[in-house]
Amino acid sequence: MTVAPDTTHALGGPALPQRRRIHTEIPGPRSRELQERQRAALPAGVGSALPVFVEAAGGGVVVDADGNSFIDFGSGIAVTTVGNAATGVVERAAAQLQRFTHTCFLVNPYESYVAVCEELNRRAPVAGPARTVLFNTGAEAIENAVKIARAATGRPAVVAFDHAYHGRTLLTMTLTAKNRPYKHGFGPFAGEVYRAPMAYAYRWPTGPEQCAREAADALVELVDRQIGAENVAAVLIEPIQGEGGFIVPAPGFLSAVAQICRDRGIVLIADEVQSGLARTGRWFAIDHEGVQPDLVTTAKGLGGGLPIAGVTGRAELMDAAPAGGLGGTFSGNPVSCAAALGVFEEIERGDLLARARAIEATMLPALDRMRQRHDVIGDVRGRGAMIAIELVKGGDHTPDAELTGRIARSCHAAGLLVLTAGTYGNVLRFLPPLSLPQDLLEEGLGILADAFDAQA
Predict the structure, then answer these.
(1) 454, CA 20 to 30 Å: which among 29, 43, 110, 167?
(2) Distance, CA of 329 to CA of 383 (rounded, Å)
(3) pTM, rounded to two decimals
(4) What are 353-386's pLDDT values in tens digits?
(5) CB atoms within 10 A of CB 321
């Protein structure tokens, strides 16, 4: 069968008109037609938060098959951090496509793989000389970080945290805390995985002032008494939890975790798959705490929309894996590597670290004003362009997932793409691309405020 190229669709990228425009119901007729095809062709386990089919995206907007243009507060779950179809990403990837699409780095290496590793080695907050190995997805990166930690320490156990999300493969699904929809019915799970309390200040039973110390004490109890420190290879933590609800650990907790690991020869792995690479106003979210992990995982925003992931760590740990023990057929694909180099270029050329901090400076005060008007907003939290609000029943901390869904749907109908998250399904999370124009950021916040006025 010959498939002719489709030249009728809109072009995306920075030149896409930066405006919100809704002229059909959501989803529109063309998206509904495509939904019918989806139901016939795909399994029921594959769903969509906003079932409008995309034709183009760029800057701060996503355009659907019916010509509706949405303000993007999702970035494809923190993937298009530098903007969808960003110039540096597209130009480098397109040039690489014309040269070669694949050799497998394990067969014939190429310079762009090395260059991406050099960039990550230079920026990752690990102590001393660093090494990087590339993969395809965040889950692969986490799995391989655990492999490296086990090889380096000769120990089997891994500690993760409440509310964590690390992926959907067997090991990363085991490391993930939430049952539905990620784990239910998919067991049995991997062994030697243990779970400690996260320093979740908003929900800590004795109050936020005690949170960091008591959570650190609980980790020590788990490691020393229940597992045995001599059996623990790694502690795995998200510096800001993603799917768990953008939980920023209580101040001092990350540094306490790092010290606990250092004292016991345990490898500290920072999962920066969602929070890394300029998203929080620093290259890595853990930089805000001044903590140096032993290994760092990256993915999502690293490829600007193309699949690529990495594990970066201290050289002596990274070199512990035996020859042939790391890698994969598609790991560090040359087109994805070219795109990743374009991401680094876009971040530096556009001063996107500063842009993330400016987004925070706009969003946090605006959301706090909404919180003061609506007691259903229990907490406002986050850093940079990784911000969330937690919704509760007025007057207490009881999670309100139903209201969260209503607010999200109201935003979608008005042309604002937002995502939900949280162990209890009661968090609205905001991940705008750093290319989002200021006027669209403010317009989007206005839509959100209107949704609360109408629904809360």
Answers:
(1) 29
(2) 36
(3) 0.96
(4) 999 999 999 999 999 999 999 999 999 999 999 9
(5) 18
Cα distances (Å, whole numbers) of residue 192 to 177, 180, 227, 269: 15, 22, 9, 16
Q: What is the DSSP letter of 281?
A: S
Please say whether the beta carbons of 70 and 417 come within 8 A.
Answer: yes
Helices and strands, number each (H, E), in the chain: 13, 15
Q: How confident is the model at residue 21 (pLDDT cuts 50, 70, 90)?
A: very high
Instruction: Read off the DSSP letter of residue 61.
Output: E
396 falls in which pLDDT band (50, 70, 90)?
A: confident
Q: Residues 143, 315: contact at Cβ < 8 Å?
A: no
Contact by Cβ (8 Å): 162, 198:
yes
Rounded distance, CA 330 to CA 445, Å? 40
How far is Cα 121 from Cα 328, in angstroms, rounded to an integer? 20
Percent of the chain with pLDDT over 90: 95
Kindly write down the DSSP assignment for every residue of 68-102, as one continuous string.
Answer: -EEEESSHHHHT-TT-TT-HHHHHHHHHHHHH-S-
Evaluate whether 355 touches 434 at the Cβ level (below 8 Å).
yes
Residue 183, token pair as written in the block: 């784990």
Q: Are strands 61-64 and 54-58 parallel, antiparallel or unpaired?
A: antiparallel
What are the tens digits of pLDDT across the range 143-181?
999 999 999 999 999 999 999 999 999 999 999 999 999
Q: To which residue do tokens 């990363």 refer?
A: 172
pLDDT in tens, 62-118: 999 999 999 999 999 999 999 999 999 999 999 999 999 999 999 999 999 999 999
Q: Say if CB 196 and CB 234 are below 8 A apart.
A: no
What is the Cα–Cα distance from 237 to 307, expressed in whole angstroms? 22
Asked if 328 and 136 count as a contact pair (C-beta separation under 8 A), the reply is: yes
Length of the chain as a residue count: 456
CA–CA gap between residue 394 and residue 205 (Å, rounded): 19
* Euclidean distance between CA atoms 406 and 372, whole angstroms: 20
Note every long-range contact of 326-330, with CB atoms under 8 Å and residues 24 or more positions apart, other chains counting: 326/133, 326/144, 326/147, 326/148, 327/105, 327/106, 327/133, 328/106, 328/135, 328/136, 328/140, 329/104, 329/106, 330/102, 330/104, 330/136
DSSP notation for 398-416: -B-HHHHHHHHHHHHHHTE
